Amino acid sequence: MRMSQIFGQTLRETPSEAEIASHQLLLRAGFIRQLAAGVFSYLPLARRALNKIEAIMRQEIDRIGGQEMTMPIVHPADLWQQTGRWYKIDAEMGRFKDRNGRDMVLAMTHEEVVADLVRQEVRSYRHLPRLVYHIQTKFRDDPRPRAGLIRVREFTMKDSYSLDTDWDGLDRQYRLHYQAYFNIFHRCGLPVIAVGADVGMMGGSLAHEYMYLTPAGEDTLLLCQSCGYSANRQIARLRKTATAAERPLELEKVATPGAKTIEELANFLGVEKARTAKAVFLIAAYPPGTTEPQIRQESFICAIIRGDMEVNETKLANTLGASSLRPATEDEIRLTGAVPGYASPVGLKRASQATGGSKSAFIVVVDDIVPQSPNLVAGANEAGYHLLNVNYGRDYSADFVADIAAAQDGDACPNCASPLQAVRGVEVGNIFKLGTHFSEKLGCTFTDVDGQEKPVIMGSYGIGSGRLLACIAEEHHDEQGLRWPVSVAPYPVHLIALVGRGSSDTMTTADQLYADLLAAGNEPLYDDRDESPGVKFNDADLIGLPLRLTVSERALKQGGVEMKRRDQSERRIIPLAEVLQVVQSELKQMEMDILEQVREVNYPD
RNA sequence: CGGGGUGUAGCGCAGUUUGGCAGCGCACCGCGUUUGGGACGCGGGGGUCGGCGGUUCGAGUCCGCCCGCCCCGACCA
Asked: Which nucleotide lies closest to A234 by the C1' atom and the CA atom?
């Protein structure tokens, strides 16, 4: 490609809206342009890098038996109504009506459509197992897109779907993906870790997320250096220590004027935060029922946790089977008879009439360490007063006792009790055991060997290609610009012609080298523009192709062309006759270096 | 949705306080010089100052409403 012909320009200055390196550099180097919040065009350079990434994904998924197809972006709403997600998902779903007034959905993901195909195509166990995938656009109207390509509203995803007759089959395909995904990321030059993840409302049994660790990430992960335990904070477990075993003491009301937070309370009374009980009030919304999907069921939740811990909303929602949680307003708290700042479940009516309005229930959830923590300080439900020696079971009861605590940096590992480390990461992929959730809702059944009709067992596996591109840029750049791994670089070679006045041989030599490289299958990005050397070198550094060749009068006088790797500072003069061969072996070496990163990983059992 | 910021040429910004010709740098076009790390000279083109309404003789500037974009939080199959 001649740079004099390429569509798109480099920018000297960083557009002000970009904050993180990948966003800034992808904009400056002419890879992407933003159309609207979280909606981007991918210019030719980005498209070529994405093509490389997608080729790697195809190879790895084909290798584990995947069959590529393409499913639509526009879906009829009734499919999504059948699985309930039309009702469950709120504004994040893109909806419109077609010209006949029929409700339509923009694809957020493709489980529904896969399942629809499966119920048409799969009748017998002879049609299973299968693995299908596609690379297709998704739209999720995220409330807050950010950080360039890291979090967008429209994006492309490689999503595969496994179809099995039994759970062992699902486990097999899941494990194959577990390794294939590492291969994909490693071949793209991206270091990742797999962490246990929330299975949420998908009815599945297991999920992993592939995380690229970076402070720019928005997921928090808890890692154990000593035993290898790793999990998204949403589900991370922790080892909790019970407070000293004591006999329950007499309940006692004490004045605690102004002590509305746990911090203030602990200071005022001179007790450890672990000796207090915190009441957190939330409103839970439940997934719509199949019979009356339009009615949004809500209930009032009082979560009790020890004062030294925080409530983990994902764990709490999973305990409740709720689809979402939001903090209750102070007015809603008062409706229950509790007093904000001095609240506890002690003495509260648990009956539904206590809440009024549309809230049909009042549910108390207690963290599982609280019953082993006797004589806690809790609110008296009276402004300015708390109760000493509150004991679970004696003074109040619960609808659920479960682990609802958020793991924090320094907490004890659930397996080995070593301190957990909290780090940030970007989720570049996930794998998910769906089970029969979608097949049951959409009637995907097959006739098994025994003549019985059974639901197809599904898994879904996704990698966002744009986000992956951004993470690679985030990992591989320096002050000067991008530094693409050879496996995903838009072009392997950046050929620069430095042509001064009256040195037409330089241009001829460069043109010839361009043609030779093209013919050898190493298409270079050829800077044939009438620009100064500084502009050309700076653009080359910015775009970040792995290998740079400079043809100039000076280099020719020294006996050839100059070669420089983007990731090294050393420059070599290569005799003209050897250039093709040296380029070939240099690229080969870089490819080998990347393949060395690809390795067998242990599946965490 | 809450909090903060911002919107002036393709990009980066000044001008808004105190109303009075719409500016600077880079980029772009033409001519010439220059050619190993973002060259120079001369000439030139490009604007609904986010939008609508109001105040005023006069609004980029003051007032009201709306919108876009960015950041923090909420949210995230």
From this structure: B76
